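May I ask you to comment on the folded chain given beneath this request?
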Amino acid sequence: MSTRRPCPKAEPEKPAPAPKPAPDPGHRGRRSSALAPVIRLSAGRFRPAHCPNRDCSFYEVKSGWRYTLWGSYQAPCCSKPLPRFRCTYCRRTFTPRTFSVTYWLHRNDLFSLIARMAVGGAGIRQIARSLGVSHSTVARHLTRVGRHCLLFHRSLLQDHVPNEDLDVDGFETFEFSQFFPCHYNLALGQESWFLYHFTDSPLRRKGTMTPEQAQRRAELETQFGRPDPKAVRQGIEELLRVVLAPLAPKVGERKTGGPILAPRPPLTLHTDEHKSYPPAIRSVRQELGLTPAMLRHVPTPSTDPRTRGNALFPANLADLLLRHCGADHRRETIAYDKRIQGGLERAALFTVWRNAIKWRRENHPGETAAMVAGVLTRRIGWREVLARRLFPRERSLPGRWWLYYWRRVKTAALGENQTENRARFAF
């Protein structure tokens, strides 16, 4: 008698594995090398010009510096191994990436995108939502690109002497709240509309106020102090000192009983009728050794129509563009600057964009403000502005710009607990 074996039960078919989802562009974690941008090094062998260590005696570019090869490593964002070098004097090692503007940045593919969107009128959180990143990432990138633009702008004017009349005016905005207004003092070329320099000056809130607002202002001034009433004058003095320094006669050219050896054509300063301008101009004129015939002052009433025929048209246009292209300066906005330091960094970004990247006139392209001023011969883009890392040196940043770079301009309402740029290597 044969026995039948029971038939095994048919196992249900296993579903096919689901395809892996596409990587989220807004993912904030560490990205794989396949998604990382490729860093393209310059053709030929990379040769550093100086040591990137600020504490090294060869941080300045000078002869006699030596370095040696110190192996190589494979970066996740580079298609080929990167050589590593070591300074023979301070013994610190570095790579070609040390001389890149994206040094020590994880999201090094967003640098130019954030710069373009910032001058396009977008706020920090708007940029973060559009790119799918954290708002702190955007703020960190804006801080670094602003510091880079400070150095880039001064490098353009390193050997440039203004050969046109200048417009000097103040752009009024505020930080933290409307109880803390401030001035951006601007100096522009009257013919080229080139923005040569800017400084900041804290102000006291003025204008019509309700009794509650007046009381609140008194309470804040008791707690944080009243702004210096001569702040605008001091800001204008520093502004003119930096812009007019190339025009000052040298020691051998000063008048010592005879005529100046190298006379220059007279220059005219056009301002409004602000009471702080005449004493500031007289002080700088005396300090730089400029006579009234060499530097003339022509005030323009603020009641004149603000048309192309107005002598202050370049300054008025700069004010318009600052409010149009900067989300932090618009009327009735929540994107205002919480710190004056952040506004100054975005002002540096605006300066480089307005001078070298944006066409001078939108309806008549073909020249930029830097081309008309004789600073550049052609229009450049963000890729050229951010092509290489610029290292800060005290003589390259005049006056308060050295404080702007290291983020040492404080907001009174925030106290001393404010971040500064204390980085030792990724500065």
Observations:
- The chain has two domains: 48-99, 142-249+264-414.
- Residues 142-249+264-414 form a domain with the Nucleotidyltransferase; domain 5 fold (CATH 3.30.420).
